[in-house]
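Weekly modeling sync, notes
Attendees: S.R. (lead), two postdocs, one rotation student

Agenda item 3: backlog of single-chain predictions. S.R. asked that every request posted to the team notebook include the full sequence so nobody has to chase files. The rotation student volunteered to paste the first one in as an example of the format we agreed on. Action items at the bottom.

Example entry:
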Amino acid sequence: MADPDNFPHDYYQKGDLIIGTVTSMFGGIFEETSFTANPKGKTVLDLLAKPKVYQHVLSMVFAVKEINENLKILPNVSLGFHIYDSYLSERMTYQNTLKLLSTQERIIPNFKCDKQKNLIAVVGGLDSEISFHMATILRSYKIPQIAYCVLAPATDVKTQFPSFYRMVPNEEHQYRGIVHLLLHFQWTWVGLITADDENGEKFLQTLMSLLSQNGICPARTKKTQAISRVMDMTTTFESLQLQAASLMSSNINVYVVNASYQTTTCLIWMIYVLSLFEGIRNVTVGKVWILTAQWDFSVMTLQKALEIQPFDGALSFASHSSEVLGFTQSLRRLQPNSPKGDGFLQAFWEKAFDCLFSDSDEGKEEIVLCTGQEKLESLPGTLFEMSIMSQSYSIYNAVYAIAHSLKKMCAFRSKLNAISDHHRRYQLKLQSWQLHPFLRSISFNNSVGDSIFFNKNGELTTGFDVINWVTFPNQTFLRVKVGRMDPQALPGKEFTMNGKAITWHSMFNQVTPLALCNDNCHPGYSRKTKEGQPFCCYDCVKCADGKISDHKDMDDCINCSEDHFPNKYQNQCLPKQINFLSFSETLGILLVSLAISFSLLTALVLGIFIKNKDTPIAKANNRSLTYSLLISLLLCFLCSLLFIGQPKVLTCYLRQTTFGVIFSVAVSCILAKTITVVLAFMATKPGSRMRKWVGKKLANSIVLFSSLIQACICAVWLSTTPPFPNVDMCSVAKEIVLECNEGSLSMFYCVLGYLGFLATINFTVAFLARKLPDSFNEAKFITFSMLVFCSVWLCFVPSYLSAKGKYVVAVEIFSVLASSAGLLVFIFFPKCYIIILRPQLNNKDQLIKRK
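Predicted structure, as returned to the notebook:
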């Protein structure tokens, strides 16, 4: 073993039961053992002393003092303690753990004597490595060990070390808290820094899996060097400078740091190296550090002049802690001139205040003597804090957990002791292994009111605080609780964060920093992965027509519901307006006006013919056919009104069928008139047999038969697949169109086809008869009218198929009005012209006149 005289730091206080502790205030670098002589350790205390850790010692002392003064906890038993330092060394950790098991003078394992300490439990150490080194020895003796800063979900610690307890939550909650924190600020492009060892590898494996599951990319992974290499200034100074410059000058704004001692030491050194070079000093600013619970913002004595400004705005996780009443006052009462067995106090004082006591064996040319009147409050927070730290709070709770477990054990044993005189003596024979069942089931509220109890894995069932570190130029800082990761909370409320309470680094001007591979895709755009890049790096692509994205960074655009449509910027769905061709809109009013105007005009023409019914021109070519044609044209104009207004069941039934039958009557009347003209001309030839066909019977038969066929088609249509009111949400992007669905397009086109068939026959016959001698040349006028009729309905089909919404109805109404008007104008206006303006031509002589 190393020579104990080279490592004098310990603190012992007698008691009936002793609590052992191994802390980590000093560091040591040791030479390789040759086994040719008694090995001696070579310490580098000036380089590696961490004065801030002395508070861990004081929290142990304070807790033991409170318990001994509180007769309600252990009235007949006094607690003592023995505190050693690990020197951050495996060798010294093993050695000092064995010292706890031996007498104060010599290390003799497994040997008991009167001077043997009655060790009941051990508290320590500061990190998992030291704690597990201790546990390797303590588990053999089944001595309870309570670690105060060990976070390890990746290994089954309780199975490997059954006597091991942790005064911290399971690290799994911290990992989840880190992910929640990144998601809260939408940080998806982050760097990871950890130690290049087994714990660092476990940290990366666990965290990277969670990050990828939640859409967060590890932009860069940095493994720090071993501490021994960091301390080797001659070989790593240039290397540290290059690594730090690369780390700090990258486009990564957020780094998650596994804040083990090795990682933070290397990180602090890198920042320290950068601070020596003005030319690259500015690259350290503008980073957000997210640090795990091991972080305590402490520096070694060598780094007192280190600028802490790069850590301004840092966020860290810490085991939940509260201020302990009276602890700060106890710190102010420290007297370094009379340490009373405290082997840490004077060394702490010298390192913290950079002075020497008069009895110190260290030689200096210019000695600054310690007066003992120096104020702890004057020290920067990086060297010492007056408020209790989370690790110190964990040690405080660990001591109380041991005391309350002893209280339960004593109460249990008092029930078994019938003779009270032997009670105290029996208690002094307590064995440490007997404490386990009481420690596992411990549950109490400490002096602050926090509930303390372990879960089945020996972990404290509490959560983590999220701390915001606010630094100041005078090397002081302020820690502000801005969030909480509470695994005991209701689902969905485990993580809380007050973003407004955070003070960011001055580089960000109090604007929440961004941590993205590229800018967010704004609403209206979707993400498209860049080939060969991590999934956090993407291009932004405009949403396709008809789709929207209403959040940032959507993977794909979505369709609006049927009753909504995308707005101009495709970032919101707007409700569609219900639309149909109504009587109140401009187009509806115009069509209604035309329909009524033509209806009145037709009625006027009918009136003219009725008034002049006995004139030759009215009698010519079957007066009853003329009246039938005018009445059917009148109804054609009026039936167009059925297409206007909100569709109802009745109007949908009547629209096409009424239009089809009435138009069939009109076209049939014209066909009868045309055939009558042809037959009349042929009947004038001598010996013609056509005379018997000339008359009203044939004309009426043509009209009735032709119209009856259309009526039958419409009847079949209505009885099989009739038209019905329909809501069309797709045809027009911004409208919900109320329409009449035709039911069967085949039947609809049969109606139109039959009209076309009649019109074609009519046009053919009229065209062939257009040059027959006739004073009023009605066949020629019918030819023109049927040409207009056919042209209108030929144009109707493509227009009808291409129109959408209410314009489908408007096209059909216009076709009805236009074709009806063509028949009215070309057939009857010439006759009205003669009747009204040229009555002299309206006589029998003129009628029988031949060209």
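Discussion: group reviewed the output briefly. Residues 649-683 form the longest helix (35 residues).
Action items: rotation student to repeat for the remaining queue; S.R. to check formatting next week.
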